[in-house]
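# nightly structure sweep
# worker-07 picked up a monomer target from the shared queue
# config: single-sequence mode, recycle default, output format = structure tokens
# input follows
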Amino acid sequence: MPHFRLWTGERSLPHNNSFPSGAAGRSFCLLLGVVYPVTILRGTAAWRPHPDAGTDPAQPAPPRAAEQAVRKHTKLSMRFIDLERVFMRAFHDSRNIKYRTPYGAIELGTAVELSLDLWDAPDAHVQLRTWIDGEGESLYAMTAGEAADNGSQRYHATLEPQAAGVVWYQFIITEANGRTQRYGAREGQFGGPGAMRDWEPPSFKLTVFDDGARARAQEELEVELDRPFVDAVFGFLRGDVDARYLAETLETFRENYPIDLLKRRFGVFDGASCPDVMACLAGIRTQRDTTFTAEDIAALDPSLAGLAKGRLWCASLLQMLLPCEPAFPRPLKRSEDAENEPWPLWDYVDADCEAIIQNTLDLRRTLPLLRGDNCRCFAVNGDVAGIWHLGDNGTAACVLVNRSLQHAYDVPIPLVAEHVTEIISGYAVPIVESGEAGATAPSAGEADRYAMTHLYQLGSAILYFHPEPLLEKPMPAGLGVLAHITSLPADDAADPADAPAAAPRIAATAPEADTATANPESPESEDDAPAEETVLPPLGTLGANAKAFVDWLADAGVRYWQVLPVNPTDEYGSPYAGVSAFAGNERLIDGGIAALADFKPTAEYLDFCWREADWLEPYAAFMALKERYGDAMLWQEWPEAYRQFTPNLTIDDPELDALTEKWRQLQFIFEKQWHDLHAYANERGVQIVGDMPIYVSADSADVWANPGIFQLEPDGMPALVAGCPPDAFTVEGQIWGNPVYNWNALQRTGYQWWMRRLERAFDLYDYVRLDHFIGFCRYFCIPEGEKATAGTYRPGPGLAFFRAAYEKFGPLPIIAEDLGMITPAVRALVAACGFPGMDIVQFVDGNDPLSGYQPRPGKIAYTGTHDNQTIVGYAEARYPERDAHEVADALIESVVTCDAPVAVLPLQDILGLDDDARMNTPGVAKGNWTWQAREADIADARERLRALVALASARQ
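# output follows
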């Protein structure tokens, strides 16, 4: 006997063969001459299938199964009408915030706006029809909006339920000719995209909560539904259930429970150890009461262990990138800032497992839209599951996971914004028209253009859709040359070989200081005297040769001149380890200390001192005290009275006051010469790209004057220092020694110190390269005195920092130094900001750049940087059997003709020099930063540079 529900307009009439409790009586329905018994029930709380219907009680089907049986017969007699009829089209997606706002369960007293798009139905009358058990139906007229470009008409209705419980709804569409159809949920679902029906009851489900219902829902989530969530995720990855089941399970949770309840510890990884999870993902743990140890996992066949790790990555993506608060495991040893995190403690099986969890956690922290409420789950096919996240300002992200071990897929995803970035691999995403996309997945959405994503077996992707520009100031296409000021020929010698053997640092005594009044605390004995300073050779300055270099660049048509930081250096000449993040390097002043001879304070000078006082006063006082106590003595060792900067700190000491004034004057001279050179370059079409190290030295004016923004001990020494963990290149890791920032303290000030630092950089340069960009996503810190193996990663300021800068400065002229072991979270941060990154031909994937070079999208292409071999040196080492200069020329040509709008070549590569001209060798303290070009070599390379610019221009 058929089993169905008959909609009478008043009640649901489920078929039953006996009178249930509360039955009003027995009735019969005549359909096409067949008598079907039905039972009219009072107070039916929900749709219930007949016990003989063969459905799974744990997975109740909606009331449309019986309708199909009825419609199968009715269509026989209606077919002659269908043949003559042009059907309208309609669309509503109860799981899309564009059609149901807000999405999901709502609080009692909250209104929800429901929308329906309608095509091919002019002058139609649309009603929203609801059903509440115990109350019956209600009808609401829907208001027509303006017609859309795609020919649809949108209808709106606002619903404000008056009681907690379930509201079922559908749409009734009456055409101008009087024909009526209904639009409701699809077969087997209570939500999502619907379908047109000739006849059906309300089937979209809207859950309304009050305090009592909320408490019951929380208990349900904690007691009944946590396990199905875990089973759905693990079952999908192991192949027990398909992606459609997973998507429907997750969407059912989101649709029927308040979002704040889902934002709790909702745990794929909660309540299970790392070995147990790995065993489950490897398919060897089938009983929940079976436990495994790390030794069990270590003993697994490598291929099985690799499978478990691949699935762990996919599981962590599915867990982390849902709106629920993840119950994500943390290591047994954890930094202090994570002690209050409500996450389970895990003893990770190995470093791979911890890195997997950390990477997905970083992703969640980096992109706020991945934590947002506006998301939905979908299935592309049985193997590929996806999660859409919609953000603000036209941004969106689509997370894709392919669980198949046999099949790879090309997945077309609707292009919902102007640009798309794949942030796991960083590779280009092909864009195709709808006719070229092949078979699309309607559940992912439809569009005129698609982003084609290739998913390998057990592969994943995160597509980040965004408009352009975002936070960045776009860089016009062009060729750049990397050469620091010091690498230019010295103004007092045409050739470095003719320069004096040594050039001392700027005089340690102010011209007017009275040495007889030296402070009694100054060192007097030979043992206490400062160590002899390292003497640097005469280097390039901001004088005539710098302007001549600008002329050389402009003559060839070069658009960018990239320099290293122009801040003061350490005793070895490193511009990445100086005493101030704000001051200019006095060694670059044309004329050196002699420039002070005729100096007279002017109104312009006084204005400079007032305008830059926030950094200038601490710096000048710091340098004055350094002259008194010597470079070898740290500021943390100075007399107590000088261990903390205060305004007018040196004014009562004539010697210190005179020294302080000298350093102010030197900074003013640097400022004047630098801006003169900067303007000279800009007038000739050359823009200057500067460089900003992320960290400052512990013995610096910045730490001395601003101890609260660094993580320091009470005595001012670093509590935590920067570095990097062990890897394939450095087994013991690296300790850099810089104090790390107290980002929480900086955040409370609106990142005031950093905003001022950026403001200073934007004044000095046209564009700024941010060194060690990964540190803004997460930073590695090591307790002072410990080995690098004792270090941990901590979250950096992330997108919030750059948004704060954007609000203050507008579009940001920033280049992200995203070299090295870049994680998906770093790619996500770069993509969310829109900053161009860096790509070096020497680091091309597969390490064979001659086989073809194309940088990843959104990158500036380089042949090398100050930290790399020259391109000739690289060619000699990489291709010893070939002519190094021919190889170098081929690589240079591949860089300037690649797809990157901007390409940058170090000056050494343009001159064709080998590694003897290398600027810096990381890990080597001495012998760096001293290379200088010969004036004759620069002149001889003029035509070569013109040819390279012509190549780059032809490509553009």
